[in-house]
Amino acid sequence: TSGYKRIYIIDEVHRLSGPAFDALLKTLEEPPEHVMFIFATTEPLKVPETILSRTQRFDFKRVSINDLTTNLSKISQAENLKINEAGLRLIARKADGSVRDSLSLLDQIASYSLGEITEEEIIKALGLVDRQFIFDFITAIAAKESKQVLKLIKNVFESGVDPKDFVGELLEHFRVLLILATDKNATDLLEVNPDEIEGYLKQADYFSLGDIMRLIKMAADLNTDLKESGLDERLLLEMTAVKMAEMEATVKFEDVLKLMRQNAQGLSNSSSGSDLFGSFEKKKDDYQTDKLTFVKKQGEADNNEREYTPLSTSIINLPTLKAGWDNFISILRQQRPMLASQLGMVEVREIVENKLLLVFPASGETSKLIVEKKDNLNLIVTTLKEHFKTNLSIKFDIDPKKENFNIKEQNLYKKNNIDLEKLVEKSPRIKMLLDKVDGQIIGVKKAKK
What is the pTM (predicted TM-score) of this model? Predict the structure, then answer.
């Protein structure tokens, strides 16, 4: 009452009725000098143009995660709260651009924890979704492991996480993958922890751009269903999770037409073709491919007339390959145990457009020569295609910086108390044999009596 101005604040002004706006308009046209009106709204489009034309408009934007984190860090230092930057970033992300909400969340954390506040305590206190959990969920989808995604959905409910929060984090994760799949250098568009960028880039390679957009559509539909359908939340999450894991890879229509055109013209066994459908382009590199797969009809004579059987047209990614790798080695071991042991040394490093890169350690030069022999390589490629039901090609390489990838085999020796160096020292015959063939021991097996 002692001031020179009277300030009237009307919150959610768009909710005023038409007659109320008409009554207000007269005052706005000829306002008293000592009066100031402040209108606040989240929906300015609902405010009549006659009101908007007589006001100054100020648009307030959400505060960035980086700015919120900086602000929370200053407050934490002033209040002597021991919390690292990663924890503050979690709170800032949960605040969703609101300074007021970020302070409320920080106050909750301060009263919840004593001493140093860890990321795990923040996740537990605020009911947040652990970032690693989301990464594991995406990997399970890429590997098409329906059983694993159901187990992870079970963990969501057992940990007390709000399903809507989980879906929201999932959508944000897919958004990051979408941006990186479009442009790997567009990190300036993202507000994520720099330490997590490498993990996002790796997962962006698991899917094509079309796959990511379809996964986003599934997650967005799930988000709507959770809010509006009224169905059991767990059922909705499980159904969508399995649908994501079982989703077939996106195939461009022009690639389908190209394959049909090739088959119609009888060019399936030519040097040109689409990697997507198993007729890889002939290039001057180390990748080994088969031309065509033929099967002889029952009762057909052994002549030049054979039936062409095309392989599956699916693109396979790294998680799917790693998930089925042990089974592939087991199948190969039944046919050629020595060859399976050699492949047990490799690291499955990457797969791009169904071209598989397998890397031996520095000591695996001899093994690389063995698996690259024509008959051995043909058997490996054929078994791979039959097991993964798609056309694959292989390239082998040596990583001089790595000593040994075969950790399982090393642990097996330790478990059975087998010291390979002492074994060679005690047996001059084995040592002589290794020297003659310039070989190495890749396995120890008891002889059957």
Answer: 0.60
